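Why do we bother with holo predictions? Because pocket geometry can differ from the apo form. Keep that in mind while you read this record for iron/sulfur cluster.
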Amino acid sequence: MNFQDYLKSSKGSIVSFYFWYFLHIINEKTLKNNNFESYIWEFLKCDIFYIAGKCQTSGNCCKNLMLVKNGITLNTKEKFEKIKTKDKKYNRFVPNYLSGTKIKNFSCTCITPQNICSDYQGRPKLCRSYPFSIFLKDDKIPNTCGYYINIKTKVPKIKNKSISNKIDHIINNNDRCRILEEEL
Ligand code: SF4
Ligand code: SF4
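The structure, written out:
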């Protein structure tokens, strides 16, 4: 499944929703496996939420950013240098050090004073997947971004407590999503 395309669509799939919904309940009542629950939730939330809005070229996601590659946070000089030898696209990022070899965050040499990416076509995958990646990882899109989270059409009434708690968590942590709370 391409999460990014699915998260762009306001239309959910009832079949897919119930598949993940019941798998979640089965896991909850039998296996109680946390990793499996997280895996299921990633799919289920894509059946419940979508990402609306558009980029307003604030440049916020391109400044003071932290890089994560294959689930590894590049927070040390060693990790960053290793990635750079494998992927030349990472040469555009300049680390800002916390102390010694520990990296606080990165600046990007491609951001222009107008907050436009000067290498838009050649930007790394992590730039292409923003803000979908941050929603999947953190259940949140910063309020300063032009994109925001919304609820898909035809989401059935959810009775399962742990799933509705997860949904509430997203709604309560994303200001522009709260307006639709009544519909659940
Ligand atoms: S933070 Fe959001 S609105 Fe700002 S540049 Fe990034 S994607 Fe665009
Ligand atoms: S490569 Fe472009 S999109 Fe990625 S951080 Fe730099 S300016 Fe932003």
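Confidence is low (pLDDT under 50) at residues 179-184.
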